[in-house]
Amino acid sequence: MRFNIFAKRPDVTFEGAPAIKLTAEQSLRRSVLSCLLWEDEFYEDGLAIADRIAALAAEVAPNVVAELAIEARERFNLRHAPLMLLCALARTGSGTSLVSETIARVIRRADELSEFLSLYWRHGRKPLSKQMKKGLAAAFGKFDAYQLAKYDRDGPVKLRDVLFLVHAKPRDEAQAALWKQVAERSLPSPDTWEVALSGGADKKTSFERLLAERKLGYLALLRNLRNMDQAGVDEALVKDAILARRGAERVLPFRYVAAARAAPRFELWLDQALAETVLEGPVFEGRTLVLVDVSGSMDWKLSAKSDLTRMDAAATLASIIPGDVRVFTFSQEVVEVPPRRGMAGVDAVIRSQAHGGTLLGAAIKRVNGVPHDRLIVITDEQSADKVPDPKAAKAYMVNVASARNGVGYADGSGGRWTHIDGFSEAVLGFMREHERLMSEAR
Description:
Number of domains: 3
Helix content: 40-55%
Order of helices and strands: HHHHHHHHHHHHHHHHHEHEEHHEEEH
Number of helices: 21
Strand order of the largest sheet: 3-2-1-4-5-6
Distance between the termini: 49 Å
Structural class: alpha/beta
Number of strands: 6
Radius of gyration: 23 Å
Strand content: 5-15%
Shape: globular
């Protein structure tokens, strides 16, 4: 495991800089909000991160775990890390309605019913509490025939197993008939692109019909652009679907970059769709400096099956920050890049300099000398040198990785930095809200 090749000192980052001292709650947020569960990162492997999440969640108050699970699922659009938190909550909140209410809210896709139980039983099968059953039953009732059929998959835990375990009561005869089909595994095949193509249907015809009937989810659309291009799907249909952004609120920004790399033909419209995220909130006031980490550790893939890296996620986030912006990158050096939006901004950041060491402290000293009102640093926080206080009153350290330790700021307590975890555009919403509250408090 990569985790084992580094000294496990609690007072330094993996690169050797002084580390900030975090509470269990802070450490849990850090581990969860940029975590694609079980996926290795540069400094730690997925198992080490998952075990730490489980251990920290057991230390934190149940209501805090519940709130974090909801935030990770609803605002940061993470799927599996919130399920890990539900497993911990089932133990620490045992016997309370908090367990059932949180389970019912966090589970938003039908396959998460069985994935949650698989995760809960990963160390051996054990009984479900009354509140777990109640929450799963409530979650089960949210899904219609299409959603249940789409995710009625073969696996160690099937949807019918969940239904039998929780003894859910249907609200009417129609739902009773639907659940009978779940129990018998006789649900009609859903009208999805997977079913259409696996049945031998013509790809062009299938995709065009699904697009015209609005039956292709936005993430599925982005993931299939190369297939559509190769099949010769009507360009106008694809363009309209990309720009309509139906369901885009659940798509992380870097997905647009992945789609553009897979199907360059559609990059112009993908770029327009990505730019829409900039318009979904108010423009930041004053001059913003953005400092993006392009060190070697940021080149690590987001997941084993992905071609995207933490650097891609950081660069994409930097490219959608609104307002008067100057963008810099740091590794061994500090380089200013054109403050371009969208895909052009991503390319400018990634190609700005060699991806080497991590001199974050020196980089902040450099940009502290540049006039600005706000500083946003996007990094995996594994600096090789001490990080000073920022000059700006509004300063954010955005962490896009789940490593155990982050940099210790100046006085060791966080100083004048506002720390945020995650690579979703939700971090920009947090900044806007934070500054609004600060303004109202004056």
